[in-house]
Amino acid sequence: MFKPKAIYFEENIENYTLGKELLNKYKDVPMYKIQSHNNIEEMRKKSNADFMDMKRNLIIGIRKTHRFVPNHKISDYLVPYTSSGCTAACMYCYLVCNYNKCAYLRLFVNREKMLDKIIQTSEKSDKELVFEIGSNSDLILENTITNNLVWTIENFKNTTKGKLTFPTKFSMVDDLLNLNHRNKIIIRMSVNPEEIINKVEFGTSRLKERIKAINKLKDAGYDVGILVAPVIFVDNWKELYTDLIQRLQKDLSNKVKKDVFFEIIFMTYSYVHTKINSEAFPKAINLYNKDIMTGRGKGKYWYKSDVRKERELFFKEQLNKYFPNNKIAYIV
Ligand code: SF4
Predict the structure, then answer these.
(1) Range 7-331: architecture per CATH
(2) Does ligand 1 lie within 6 Å of residue 189's CB atom?
(3) Distance CA 326, CA 44 (A)
(4) Are the beta carbons of 219 and 303 closer than 8 angstroms?
(5) Per-residue confidence at 1, pLDDT binned at 50, 70, 90?
(6) 97 vs 118: CA distance, rounded Å
């Protein structure tokens, strides 16, 4: 259970039910008022070496921007929702590109406004829209602090149209199992080989626990997907990912295997990651490999196209072999 070292909060959160609840829940934790969750001078001045220590704090504010971004993978829109950042520290975390070393967990207490906008957009649309609500944080982790997922599922269930989806690397799903979700929620568990979880995805759930969580969610009637993400081409990648796919085949329940779908995402890395990781985790493995990576836009790196092509084939072959009846939504 996450116990913050300190709370930094915007004064107005006291006007919201969740804001009051959180201030009361953490009344024994040192608290500091801030003007804006986006600009905490004390945090900005910290060094990269303090990255993990900074993540022990909890920032609470009000989300001001509510812009939906069109998306064409699993969802129709990426939607800013109840949190950004995370208490875990995956060395490739895409949020570091947005927030740099300030990728700590921020909670936004104006959840009614955010969910209302989703519901109104959904009800007005001619087609069944899917909203990605977890592109800025990990909502299963966040739910252990705020109960926001339970609240969201309960308040979304009576809409006539639309679905919500989010990815996670956490296994604490028990609070969701007895909810009446009415098949409106698609939960996508992100997996990686155990060795990569241990060496790269600090503070997330073990592979075994993630697989158990997928089985439990399916038993509870949720639609589930599996993200093999991000695929990291360490030296023994072929062996690791072959083992992973075989393990999924062995340990996922028949119910899951009946219709689970896959998304495969190859890692994107960046100059900011190399800087922060080298100072925050000096003993960790180096994820940047100049032999197989190339520049991708400003300060970002991804695997070269010939490497991608060849390795896409590997994943297609392995998944076709062990999951012949399951859809690969995309490989990117
Ligand atoms: S669990 Fe997700 S949000 Fe949290 S550090 Fe890892 S990649 Fe980032």
Answers:
(1) Alpha-Beta Horseshoe (3.80)
(2) no
(3) 46
(4) no
(5) confident
(6) 26
